[in-house]
TrEMBL record:
Protein name: Ribose-5-phosphate isomerase A
List of catalytic residues: E105 (proton acceptor)
UniProt enzyme class: isomerase
One matching Pfam family: Rib_5-P_isom_A
GO molecular function: ribose-5-phosphate isomerase activity
Catalysis: reaction(s): aldehydo-D-ribose 5-phosphate = D-ribulose 5-phosphate
Keywords assigned by UniProt, alphabetized: Isomerase
Pathway(s) annotated for this protein in UniProt: Carbohydrate degradation; pentose phosphate pathway; D-ribose 5-phosphate from D-ribulose 5-phosphate (non-oxidative stage): step 1/1
Keyword Iron in annotation: no
Length: 236
């Protein structure tokens, strides 16, 4: 199976968690797009759900597929969020934000009773950090924020290059919320919860791509088939 076929297989398995009448968080990215498309097929067959998209791209995909949408201003909780990830560790901590939607993705995931992550098995790692860690920042005072980020990384025992993400036009990439993203090339993050706490305390940081304790279940698609991993009790 190709990588896209693996992603679609994981997305199809996630439909087993969807029940009639659910309020759903709809993730962003290539794997989540498969889920939205498959969900749209179920909606056309009579499934009654309503979704909250985590990006303007996902909003457009959902509208194209006929999935009814709402916002977290109109409802205050979600039953289930299905989203992808850039990296997943054995405690089901994640790195997300490769597509730039980490802020809305985390808001939606935190408002959900359950988060199911869908991925091909290349995203499963022993330790997070090989994928650059996205950090969404306020443009104002970027130099000071970068200095504070470097200090936080040193305090957490990690280090590496911090680069401002560029858009296709060669200028700074701008998120749906109007912020910028810096990518931290750390290589290895031995204590993701500690680093997440340090990053959250920096004033110029809007949000970071460490998703700690949010994913309850991961569906991994690989050459040997599907593997479903539930978060170990008491672990983050």
């Amino acid at each position: 199976m190709s990588k896209e076929e693996l992603k679609r297989a994981a997305a199809a398995q996630a439909l087993a968690y969807v029940e009639n009448g659910m309020q759903l968080g709809l993730g962003t990215g290539s794997t989540a797009k498969h889920f939205v498309e498959l969900l749209g097929e179920r909606v056309r067959d009579g499934l009654r759900v309503i979704g909250v998209p985590t990006s303007e791209v996902t909003r457009a995909d959902a509208e194209r597929c006929g999935v009814p949408l709402t916002t977290l201003d109109e409802i205050d909780h979600l039953d289930l969020t299905v989203d992808g990830a850039d990296e997943i560790d054995p405690s089901l901590n994640l790195i997300k934000g490769g597509g730039g939607a980490l802020l809305r993705e985390k808001i939606v995931a935190a408002a959900s009773a359950r988060m199911v992550v869908i991925s091909d098995d290349s995203k499963w790692v022993d330790t997070l950090g090989r994928f650059p860690l996205p950090v969404e920042v306020i443009p104002f005072g970027l130099g000071a924020t970068r200095h504070a980020l470097a200090a936080a990384f040193a305090q957490a025992g990690v280090g590496g290059e911090i680069s401002l993400r560029q858009g296709k036009d060669g200028h700074a990439f701008v998120t749906d919320g109007g912020h910028w993203i810096v990518d931290a090339h750390l290589g290895r993050i031995p204590d993701p919860p500690r680093l997440a706490s340090l990053l959250s305390a920096i004033p110029g940081v809007v949000e970071h791509g460490l998703f700690i304790g949010l994913a309850k279940t991961v569906i991994l698609a690989g050459s040997q088939g599907l593997r479903i991993v539930d978060r170990p009790a008491g672990r983050v």
